[in-house]
Specification:
The complex is a heterodimer of chains A (about 120) and B (about 110).
Chain A lengths: L3 E4 L2 E4 L5 E7 L5 E7 L5 E9 L2 E4 L6 E3 L9 E3 L8 E8 L10 E2 L3 E5 L1
Parallel strand pairs in A: 2-11
Antiparallel strand pairs in A: 1-3, 3-8, 4-5, 4-9, 5-6, 7-8, 9-10, 9-11
Chain B lengths: L3 E3 L4 E4 L4 E7 L7 E6 L6 E6 L3 E5 L2 E6 L4 E6 L8 E8 L6 E3 L3 E6 L1
Parallel strand pairs in B: 2-11
Antiparallel strand pairs in B: 1-3, 3-8, 4-5, 4-9, 6-7, 7-8, 9-10, 9-11
The chains are: A mainly beta (about 120), B mainly beta (about 110).
């Protein structure tokens, strides 16, 4: 079955530690996205990529970094500089070409917590 | 003013009733509007999209859009306990360069 796989489901970060959230898709989608969700708040865009080897900052990119070396993969690095990273992180994809009018396909999410 | 506003709820309705969820947005140039359903601890799933003024029906769901009033709503007929979830409204920006989500409305359907 095609879909988006996020791992791990739960992740714990220690102070001063960088962590990486994995996102892999086999939908052959061009565009991929990372969102952060905090309780009682809407999804906020961290980074997005519309094509391999290219990505743009979203609304809350500070303290995060990404890469898009392969079409299928869009890992998110949460750096030690990021304060209050505890949140539910969602990876999503769209076929691409339709801009923000397209349906988002979401992965199952990663809950990141700070020890 | 938030770009996309929703009443956080919870909205409680009895089983079989109509649930009405509302969303207002600030960008008058917005063109695309989406409703996503999110169960607790799960990822959102798209249930409706609407692009022009009026009503759009899909099964028990009806999306209503009024661009003049900057208002989009979702009606759920014959509500079921399985409809209990958080409903997220999402609106794209005037230039199609961003998608903004509301904070969501919690719906509880009581049997």
């Amino acid at each position: 079955d095609g879909g988006i796989t996020q791992s791990p489901k739960y992740l714990f970060r220690k102070e001063g530690q960088n962590v990486t959230l994995s996102c892999e898709q086999n939908l052959n989608h061009d565009a991929m996205y990372w969102y952060r969700q905090d309780p009682g708040q809407g999804l906020r865009l961290i980074y997005y990529s519309q094509i391999v080897n290219d990505f743009q900052k979203g609304d809350i990119a500070e303290g995060y970094s990404v890469s898009r070396e392969k079409k299928e993969s869009f890992p998110l690095n949460v750096t030690s500089a990021k304060k209050n990273p505890t949140a539910f992180y969602l990876c999503a994809s769209t076929r691409g070409g339709g801009g923000w009018n397209e349906k988002l396909f979401f992965g199952s999410g990663t809950q990141l917590s700070v020890l | 003013q938030k770009e996309v506003e929703q009443n956080s709820g919870p909205l409680s309705v009895p089983e079989g009733a109509i649930a009405s969820l509302n969303c207002t947005y600030s960008d008058r140039g917005s063109q695309s509007f989406f409703w996503y359903r999110q169960y607790s601890g799960k990822s959102p799933e798209l249930i409706m999209s609407i692009y022009s003024n009026g009503d759009k029906e899909d099964g028990r769901f009806t999306a209503q859009l009024n661009k003049a009033s900057q208002y989009v709503s979702l009606l759920i007929r014959d509500s079921q306990p399985s409809d209990s979830a958080t409903y997220l409204c999402a609106v794209n920006g005037e230039y199609g360069n961003k998608l903004v989500f509301g904070a969501g409305t919690i719906l509880r359907v009581k049997s």
